[in-house]
Amino acid sequence: MRAGLYIHFPFCLKKCLYCDFNSTAAAGGEPRRYVELLLREMELRHAALPEPVAAPTLYLGGGTPSLMEPRWVGRLIEAAARGFGLEGDAEVTLEANPGTLTPERLSGYLAAGVNRLSLGVQSFEDRLLRRLGRVHTAGEAVASFEAARRAGFDNISIDLMHSLPEQTLSQWRAALGQAVSLGPEHISAYALTVEEGTPFERLLEQGGLPLPVEEDAALMFEMTPGLLAGGGYRHYEISNFARPGRRSRHNAAYWSRQSYLGFGAGAHSFWNGDGLGRRWKNACDLAGYNAGIAAGAIPEQEPQLLTLEDAVSESFFLGLRVLDGLDLAPLAELFGEKALERPLSEVNRLEGAGKLLREGTVIRLAPDAVILANTIFSSFL
Asked: What is the rounded distance in angstroms from the CA atom of residue 1 to the CA atom of residue 253?
């Protein structure tokens, strides 16, 4: 079974005001002890596998994985190779916060086996970074990118956010221009979402979060592909842009319903051995995760055996995220023509409305309908 690997490191210097990820401020030696638990979980999962695994990708996310010392990262990569067949040409990504990087740490990550860096820039304006609660400055973001290049990283992705409080169209245009001038291989450009339970939600309710008007937010989304295309970036997924050959291989597994195994507090997994699949997640709270691993048990929660209807729905709304489109022929072979009757009726309706395009057996979002993607995807739920 080919399966991507995801390792969740939940610690940060401090939690950003918009963040609803499973993360917390680091304290004392807790991160070091957590790495030992991760290694133990990997041993337990390896022993429980129904069949051997070959892993084409490994993604270390968070939280702020760049708080880990390179030697810790090296131990995790070695465990992935030993227990899960991490392939020699695997894509190994580390998420990094510019406020945590040094030249020595970057060189150490590269030597440990990390070959792709995902840099959480978010903005090139200090005012906006402070508003988000980020711990780095715009200058540190640029300096970290340049240091990563000097260290030898030739595959760098940067994250940028638009529709931020008081952000203007010209500011977003300038941010994209600065990103292109740096020349990363990959850019993730996504809109701020005010998530439930975050400080931003409370500020919004109190009238203290002056977000751009809806029309400006839409314009920010719509201007992005054209501005990045001039730098050689192809818009290949709703919020993702890449130069040729530099798409995220790890994320592609999510969109195509390939198996992946998650390790760490709150990590999600998907095992697709039968075409339908099984999902589960680890305990989110650190105490519960720690107790389970210490007791020799993988702390799985919310197991879900997907039905045929579930699997078909997922295939459509995940597959259509990729702008190259979704090929219906393999789905018909996998699930049967009858199982596709309802989603195909939605395809016909959306095609008639100009929101989907069809070429042979491939369907894709119409260019001017990408901004409506979430509404279109809901048609297949």
From this structure: 13
What are the backbone dihedrals phi and psi of residue 69, each rounded to the nearest 5 degrees, phi first? -65, 150
Is pLDDT above 90 for 13? no
Q: Are strands 300-305 and 278-282 parallel, antiparallel or unpaired?
A: antiparallel
pTM, two decimal places: 0.95
Residue with tokens 């996998």: 334
Q: In this structure, what DSSP letter does residue 50 have?
A: S
What average pLDDT does range 363-368 have in this prediction? 96
153-156 CB contacts, 8 Å cutoff, 24+ apart:
153/106, 153/110, 153/115, 153/116, 153/117, 154/185, 155/91, 155/115, 155/116, 155/117, 155/185, 155/186, 155/246, 156/116, 156/117, 156/118, 156/119, 156/184, 156/185, 156/186
Per-residue pLDDT tens digits for 105-131: 999 999 999 999 999 999 999 999 999
Listing DSSP states for 280-336 in one string gives EEE-SSHHHHHHHHHTT---EEEEEEPPHHHHHHHHHHHHTTBTT-EEHHHHHHHH-
Would the pLDDT of 14 be above 90? no
Domains defined for the chain, CATH in brackets: 3-253 (3.20.20.70), 308-378 (1.10.10.920)
What would the pLDDT profile of 221-265 be if each residue is shown by its tens digit? 999 999 999 999 999 999 999 999 999 999 999 999 999 999 999
| Residue 2, strand partner residues | 54
Closest CA to 162 of 219, 238, 204, 120: 219
Other beta carbons within 10 angstroms of residue 213's beta carbon come to 10
Query: What are the distances in angstroms from CA 369 to CA 221, 222, 340, 354, 355?
Result: 12, 10, 23, 8, 5
* End-to-end Cα, the chain, rounded Å: 28
Q: Mention every residue, 6+ apart, whose C-beta is less than 8 A from residue 362.
A: 324, 325, 326, 327, 328
Q: Which residue, 117, 129, 137, 127, is CA-closest to 188?
A: 117
* Identity of the residue numbered 379: S
Tokens coding 18 = 């918009």
